[in-house]
Each structure stands twice: as structure tokens, then as C-alpha cells.
Amino acid sequence: MFKPYFARFAAYNAWANGLIYDATAEVSADQFTGDAGAFFGSLSGTLNHMIVADRIWLRRLRGDGPEETRLDRKITDDLAELRAARRVEDDRIIDYVEAREEADFLADISYRNTSGEPFTQSLDAVMGHFFNHQTHHRGQAHAILTRLTGTAPSIDLLYYMRDLDA
Hints:
Distance between the termini: 25 Å
CATH superfamily: dinb family like domain
Structural class: mainly alpha
Strand order of the largest sheet: 1-2
CATH topology: Four Helix Bundle (Hemerythrin (Met), subunit A)
Order of helices and strands: HHHHEEHH
Largest sheet: 2 strands, antiparallel
Strand content: 5-15%
Number of helices: 6
């Protein structure tokens, strides 16, 4: 039952991203763009990377959307613009999963990575990576927010599921 599983992750992903962006709105512009020692430098760099990576994968999967070629590309340092871009990608993710049939998740897809190397993998494996990648970098953003403000929102999947039950 891959479709309900990935539909849950698509909705959770949007929810958790919203909480991270809400918390990010509380930091100064200098804190947002300043080097935080993360893989993509700043909080801004981390959030930008998450969107760029999603666009790369969604272009491979859907065949549409912005064409990105560099994982470290800065879309913008303007938080409002970045948040708007994040919402667009979160909606595209939800729509993509919703449009899939259960059998689609077992089918192989072929794509090229950013270096041009060809790969073929099952869609369920790609989607597992896709959502794990989001969680990984959201964790980095969470750590940056904690360091900058002393607190960050609870974004565990269980909190999302508890919110649904409330």
C-alpha cells in the first residue's frame, strides 16, 4: 500500500515545511543568510537547496516545472519569496502522489542525475529517498533554528499524526 504511505508523507512534508518557515520568520535577515556551518551554509542556503532538489526530482518524475542543474543554487534570500516557492513545490508533490496508481510505485523509472549519469530504480525507492532527503535537510534547518533562537518547532511525524487526530 504505497500510495497511502506516500500520500501521508507528502502531506506531512508540507505541514513540517510550514512549521519550519513559521519559525524562520522569527529570525533576523542576518541570521537567515549568515553562515551557520551547515552543508549549504546558512538557513537560507538549506531551505533553497530543499526546493532546488525537489524541483530536480519533480522534473524527473512529472516532466514539468523549473529546470534546475545545481544543488547549491540560491533561488532567493527573500523569505516570503522562498516560502511561496516552497508552497508551490509542496502542492506539486501532493498532486504527483495523488495522481499515481498503486502499481505505479512498483514500476521502474529511468532518469539522469545532475552529472548526467543514467539510473533506473523503482518509483517506491525514489519516493523513499525523496522524502528522506526532505527530512534530512529539515533536520539541519531545525538544528540551525535551535542554535539561533534556543527553540524550534516539533516536526516529528508523530506530531503531525496527532494534529490530524485532534
